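worker-3 :: picked Alpha/beta hydrolase family protein
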Amino acid sequence: MHIVLIPGLWLDATSWDRVIPVLERAGHTAHPLTLPGLESRDADRSAVTLQDHIDAVVAAVDAVPAGEGKVLVVGHSLGSALAYAAADARPDRVARTVYIGGFPATDGEPLGRFAAENGEIPLPSWEDLGETDLKDLDDAARADFRARAIPSPERATTDPIRLTDERRFDVPVTVICPEFSAAELRDWIDGGEPPVQEFTKLHDVEYVDLPTGHWPQFSRPDDLGRLINEAAAK
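worker-3 :: tokens ->
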């Protein structure tokens, strides 16, 4: 199966390097993305929009020949909202979406608010991120993360997302829960927490625990790959 892999903030396609071999051993073809503005630290991010990021994901789906089947679209963190947008844009081509530590977005809402400098969002300090998110990343892993981090375009988080096709509700979803548990997520949904209310509109959702920090592609890549393979098998 073709699997499109969308990184979250501050990361490019190489963030999936330790997950991809697990997918390939299962016979899948991985398409890790570097989103616009994340090509390098020196890239011009000033005019990059949320729609540019969505368009890049949709283009990756469209690049898979229709004769080779539907596509699994995987998003990490804010990349989960991009995966959901791809299901909205191509509900007939996306077989399933997988959200890793992230949620589907609500039409008309921005994806988040982060401290920005000159139109871009740098990786925050470890103190600002917090130990819950950084769980299972030792000093060497944290140093590697910071060395690879690239500022993200501010408008990728502040532009409102636009969703138009309610067939997206029929696309099955797997939610991989790392720094929060599946039970906690269900409690947030049932309790009416605004960031997760889009889940109430989805017709087929499974919740899977992967206890670690917010970046399982670094802390538990083999287990993350296994769970993605299980989602593909569905």
